[in-house]
Amino acid sequence: MTIYQNLIGGEWIGSDATENINPSDTNEVVGLYADGSAEDTKNAIAAAKAAFPAWSRSGIWERHVILKKAGDEIMARKDELGALLAREEGKTLPEAIGETIRASQIFEFFAGEALRLAGEVIPSVRPNIGVEITRDPLGVIGIITPWNFPIAIPAWKIAPALCYGNTVVFKPAELVPACSWAIVDILHRAGLPKGVLNLVMGKGSVVGQAMLDSPDVSGITFTGSTGTGRRVAAASLEHNRKFQLEMGGKNPMVVLDDADLDVAVEAAANSGFFSTGQRCTASSRLIVTEGIHDKFVAALTAKLETLVVDNALKAGTHIGPVVDEKQLKTDTDYIEIGKQEGAKLAFGGELISRETPGFYLQPTLFTEATNEMRISREEIFGPVVSLIRVKDYEEALATANDTPFGLSSGIATTSLKHATHFKRNAEAGMVMVNLPTAGVDFHVPFGGRKGSSYGPREQGKYAAEFYTIVKTSYTLA
User: Fold this and answer.
1) What pLDDT is recorded for position 126?
2) Does domain 251-433 have CATH number 3.40.309.10?
3) 165-202 pLDDT, tens per residue?
4) Is there a contact between 222 and 228 (Cβ–Cβ < 8 Å)?
5) Interior/surface letters 179-199, b for 16+ CB within 10 angstroms, e for the rest
């Protein structure tokens, strides 16, 4: 079987390899992917540093053409790449193709941004002096991405990094190297100069640590667990390095008495259970007022009974497998914790056997939960949702905000008054009204507050805040 190698300094470099296993069919090896070393990482950083002076001064048309070409190829291959994503991560094929299209759109957007680079020219308070405010690229960017969006998240980090003239050392999650390799291969063939984009697949404890230890990495953008994010922050402070963190969530969806029941149920089912609940924006806390509580539970349970859990590539599948055995154990451990804490298991919670061996788990709904329970406070990252009964809107808002996280927050209501108040007072970076808490556009800022995020927002024109440095220049007329 072919070994997919790391890209370092414009060359494909061989190394030991690890198997990439399909969670929908554990008998299938998706491919063999390089297992990079600390030395590989150091070489990649050196290559990126050497390539930075020329790339940082490259023409905006060159950057535009490369990013546009990559976006076009991703779109042309959306079915192929979507199937690859579904095979290695377990997301259903329609979701995987949708994510691939989003990656293409991200590259298309930043291809346009490369032509819209701008600054300011303003007068000084002193006579005969002009002031220019411009943005310089940051330098070598270390990119560390998670497994749950293996093509979209790499795209929304790599595209702006290159757009603004930075060079990149990219380390994808160990579970999902295939989509990352494909993106890097596309960009490499699109005409990137040697060393501008480097791929080092491998263990976080090896490759990621080497990136953190290097004084030549000017910035690190990280999406992943809260614990690892804290280590990224601590290591970056030592080097006075810019860093950007997207971490955990325990996102609430409030359902008020006046909500449209069908809208609320669709939003809750999508938020909590689609993509197997493996989204940082997933709503794992449903906060429901007393007047609609029983009707909502009955309708949501009926909805869950219709959802098909099966092979991600199989037509008609709504929910694919959990990504791997370790995450499956985490999910089932939390299901037992929920039972022990006194929550009522209203639906699901059982392992499922299907035609192909995989990590299949029923969508799991706990009712009669409280906001103090571990299942309501800790991120599970699986199809496990706790439902909390509250008296009224005021208690719902307080409960929604009572969390160490603050990524996404949602409300289902037909009241303009409550929707407006919630948007202003929800302690989250993103607020959804009568929509799932998961699902965001590619051209607008993405990020949270509190324990969910640190640093400038990702995506859209706001990405420039992380990937560039503001420079102020004075000229005597």
Assistant:
1) 96
2) yes
3) 999 999 999 999 999 999 999 999 999 999 999 999 99
4) yes
5) bbbbbbbbbbebebebbbbbb
Measured CA to CA in angstroms, residue 284 lies from 122, 253, 280, 306, 472 at distances of 49, 8, 10, 19, 45
Single-letter residue type at 87: R
pTM listed for this prediction = 0.96
Q: What is the pLDDT of residue 38?
A: 97
- Report the pLDDT averaged over residues 249-277: 98
179 carries an active-site annotation: no
**Domain map of the chain by residue range?**
3-247+442-476, 251-433
Q: What is the distance between the alpha carbons of residues 134 and 141, in angstroms, rounded to a whole number?
A: 20
Residue 435 has which token pair? 């929509």
Mean pLDDT of 239-255: 97
pLDDT in tens, 330-377: 999 999 999 999 999 999 999 999 999 999 999 999 999 999 999 999
At 25, list the tokens: 């069919």
Query: Which pLDDT score, from 0 to 100, does residue 99 have?
Result: 98
Q: Strands, E, within 58-214: which ranges?
A: 120-123, 129-137, 140-144, 167-171, 197-199
Q: How far is CA 50 from the centre of its chain?
A: 29
Closest CA to 256 of 90, 423, 70, 391: 391
In CATH terms, are 3-247+442-476 and 251-433 the same topology? no
Q: Quick one: which of 174, 176, 227 has its CA closest to 378?
A: 227
Termini Cα distance of the chain: 66
Residue of 73, 163, 174, 280 marked active site: 280
CATH 2.60.40.3080, applies to 3-247+442-476: no
pLDDT digits (tens, 9 = 90+) for 6-26: 999 999 998 789 999 999 999
The residue from 246, 266, 379, 458 that is catalytic is 246
Contact between residue 313 and residue 24 where contact means Cβ atoms under 8 Å apart: yes
Predicted pLDDT at 15: 79
- Of 369, 63, 404, 371, give the one whose Cα is nearest residue 229: 404
If you search the block for the tokens 């199989």, which residue do you land on? Answer: 314
What's the pLDDT score for residue 439? 87
**408: part of which helix (H) or strand (E)?**
strand 408-412
One-character DSSP codes across 327-372: HHHHHHHHHHHHHHHT-EEEE---EE--SS---EE--EEEEEE-TT
Look up 246 and say whether it is catalytic.
Answer: yes
